Automatic annotation (TrEMBL):
Keywords, comma-separated and alphabetical: Oxidoreductase, Peroxisome, Purine metabolism
Any one biological process term the GO annotation gives: purine nucleobase catabolic process
Record-listed urate binding positions: T66, D67, F168, R185, V233, Q234, N260
Reactions catalysed: urate + O2 + H2O = 5-hydroxyisourate + H2O2
Protein name in the entry: Uricase
Top-tier EC class: oxidoreductase
This protein's encoding gene: LOC110981412
Residues the entry annotates as binding 5-hydroxyisourate: T66, D67, F168, R185, V233, Q234, N260
Organism annotation: Acanthaster planci
Stated family: Belongs to the uricase family.
GO cellular component: peroxisome
Catalytic residues of the enzyme: K21 (charge relay system), T66 (charge relay system), H262 (charge relay system)
Keyword Heme: no
Length: 301
């Protein structure tokens, strides 16, 4: 016997109420003669239902079990294949929305494992791979029933560092300020970025992901011979987002996060030595946190 709670009256928030399966990991192995390919992904499925009878009354008649969602990931990998994270997420979203009348909204996220072919003296191995991570690649697909998918791609955990051409001056100084101004500092961060598409027609997701990743790296580092000065992480974020939009016309929104990972001079005086600035200690916490979200400016009539 099910029963409703005896507390205050409440309404479930439709776009914040969902359930699903997290971290469904799967590796697909493709064979093309002697040459083998692999794709390994971790999938999160979020489904929102038209009615909330399971929450309100303990009636599970509309519920697609999370175990069934896991099996669906396996089945669609078999029948559709995993070509890109974005394609696979859209296939899963379409399946849940068209197969089950009660599913009115989906959010599917897919993260790809960074497997690369082993390289032997410039020649790629046909069936041996190495797990080498510059950045984690992910995508998020949100879709309403009878609506078009909203596709975002992104990267995370891309740790980068430059030893000069970074500064921070002119900030507010008051009685709580202890940070000295500098025009020459180490800048280290772990980048998380997400870009959203206005249209995915004709998009090469693999190529576009590489373009966006390399754009962020180019703006952070600058030309290889000279570098590029960064007066603040904020400006570096903004310039990277601007260049992503310039290079990929289908991107209409970019979100970038660059926490400032500090490297502090080690105190060598207590052991009778001077630190000329060449011995530093990395610190994880506390850290500065800088984020920007930008979208294309729409023309005003």
């Amino acid at each position: 016997m099910s029963r409703t709670g005896s507390g205050p009256k409440m309404d479930l928030v439709s776009d914040g109420t969902y359930y699903g399966k997290h971290r469904v990991r799967i590796l697909q192995h493709f064979r093309h003669g002697n040459t083998h390919n692999i794709k390994e992904v971790a999938v999160n499925t979020h489904l929102s239902l038209a009615r909330q009878r399971d929450y309100l009354h303990g009636d599970n008649s509309d519920v697609i079990a999370t175990d069934s969602q896991k099996n669906t990931v396996y089945a669609l990998a078999k029948t559709k294949g995993i070509r890109t994270p974005e394609q696979f997420a859209m296939d899963l979203s379409r399946h849940f929305l068209t197969t089950y009348e009660q599913v009115v909204r989906t959010e599917i996220s897919v993260e790809e494992a960074p497997w690369h072919r082993m390289d032997h003296s410039g020649k790629e191995h046909v069936h041996a791979f190495i797990h080498r991570q510059e950045a984690k690649r992910f995508c998020i697909v949100q879709q309403e029933k009878n609506g078009l998918p909203k596709v975002s791609s992104g990267l995370s955990d891309m740790k980068v560092l430059k030893t000069t051409k970074s500064g921070f001056v002119g900030f507010v100084r008051d009685r709580f300020t202890s940070l000295p101004e500098t025009t020459d500092r180490i800048l280290c961060t772990s980048v998380r970025g997400k870009w959203s598409y206005s249209s995915v027609a004709g998009i090469d997701f693999d190529k576009t992901w590489e373009i966006c990743k390399n754009t962020i790296l180019d703006i952070f580092a600058g030309p290889p011979e000279t570098g590029m000065y960064s007066p603040s992480v904020q400006q570096t974020l903004y310039q990277a987002a601007q260049q992503i939009m310039a290079k990929v016309p289908q991107v209409d929104k970019v979100e970038l996060e660059m926490p400032n990972i500090h490297y502090l001079f080690a105190d060598l005086k207590k052991i009778g030595m001077e630190n000329s600035g060449d011995i530093l200690v990395p610190t994880d916490e506390p850290r500065g946190y800088i984020r920007a979200a930008v979208c294309r400016t729409t023309a005003r009539l």
